[in-house]
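ok so I'm stuck.
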Amino acid sequence: MSTENLYNKDAKKKIKEMAEDIDFTMMATNLKEIPLSVIPMSTKKVDGEGNIWFLSGKDSDHNTDIQNDPNVQLIYSKPGDMKFLSVYGRATITTDKGIIKDLYSKSDDNWFDGVDDPNITAISFKPNEAAYWDTETNKLVALFKMGVGTVTGEKQDVSKSGKMKV
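replied:
not stuck anymore, here's the structure
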């Protein structure tokens, strides 16, 4: 495994690439309390500034947690492709209808009564620090390299990992 630490623009690009590819994340709020409050969330968008956007219910526990403490941890995992991303940052909640319309899709009808649902909010998550593990090749190539390493006893570089500062 090789290490590649990323900063600023490169970090934002890597976060965007991985968050959009993996989509679902576990959002941890109320980070000062054990156990953490954790909920699965679907990434709606990663904007040009590297902010990650979600839709959420105004009356949800995680919205209440964010209002009390905006520090949030996102854990993305796609084990089949051996891609993992952990992002720490701050979240803010908005009820801006323009933003909600931009993020909303037909599948969101499962949770909300359209973009005018009085319970719908958008969460903007601004990354501060992150860590990633990524094969950056397809799974078949990574598995082949692992097999070669097993047979030859030589370590194979099958993935990259690193820390990111945004």
